[in-house]
TrEMBL record:
Biased composition (Basic and acidic residues): 172-181
One Gene Ontology MF term: oxidoreductase activity
UniProt record similarity statement: Belongs to the nitroreductase family.
Annotated spans, Disordered: 172-197
Any Pfam family hit: Nitroreductase
Keywords, sorted A to Z: Oxidoreductase
Protein name from the UniProt record: Nitroreductase
Taxonomy of the source species: Bacteria, Pseudomonadati, Pseudomonadota, Alphaproteobacteria, Hyphomicrobiales
Every Nitroreductase domain range: 20-78
Length: 197
């Protein structure tokens, strides 16, 4: 087993999986665009069915034009804290893929593959000393409109990235939640030979 970040795995794993978590307390400082592009380059190498690579990222840096408009694309509960991040990244995925005869077909794995890309970005960010917090609480229609996302793409999620700040700067209700979460036991999610509900 591995212990790190007040967490403990059941088997020996790399500590980065325990160290990565989704805090809300960011320090409000900008980050170099090169660091953000390093994070997103790592996600480029995520596994992808048929090597389609359906994910796309749209980013806004806090020290650039459009920051307040980007924060407004989050649901209000996320705006409260995500406005202190160094960058916001919006992930969209292509719901179609080219088939062998050159026509377009539905890509059933677009969301699955995009989730792999998000995890790669999150781990690379942690390796660079940044934290990330993924969000489903976003205004997907407004994001698509704001950034000109084509109809055959879907808005998947957004994530905030930055250096960890002070939890005392969060609203009191969020301060209580500002700690790495635990996980279900392996026995609840891994089964040999058949499914156990």
């Amino acid at each position: 087993m591995t212990e790190s970040n007040h967490r403990q795995s059941e088997y020996p794993i790399n500590p980065i999986f325990l160290d990565r978590w989704g805090p809300r307390a960011f320090d409000g400082k900008p980050m170099p665009v090169e660091d953000l592009l390093t994070v997103l380059d790592a996600s480029r190498w995520a596994p992808s069915a048929l090597n389609v690579q359906p994910w796309r990222f749209i980013y806004v840096l806090r020290d650039k034009d459009g920051w307040d408009e980007a924060v407004a694309l989050l649901m209000e509960a996320n705006q409260v804290w995500a406005g202190n991040a160094a960058a916001l990244v919006f992930m969209v995925s292509h719901t179609k893929r080219l088939n062998r005869d050159g026509g377009w077909a539905d890509n059933a794995g677009h969301a699955f593959d995009s989730g792999s890309a998000w995890m790669a970005a999150s781990l690379q960010a942690k390796m660079l000393g940044y934290d990330t917090h993924g969000m489903g609480g976003i205004h997907k229609d407004k994001i698509a409109e704001k950034f000109g996302v084509p109809a055959d793409y879907t808005v998947e999620m957004a994530f905030a990235i930055g250096k960890y700040g002070r939890k005392e700067d969060l609203p009191e209700a969020l301060q209580e939640r500002e700690a790495p979460s635990s996980r279900k036991p392996l026995s609840e999610v891994v089964f040999e030979g058949h499914f156990k509900g």
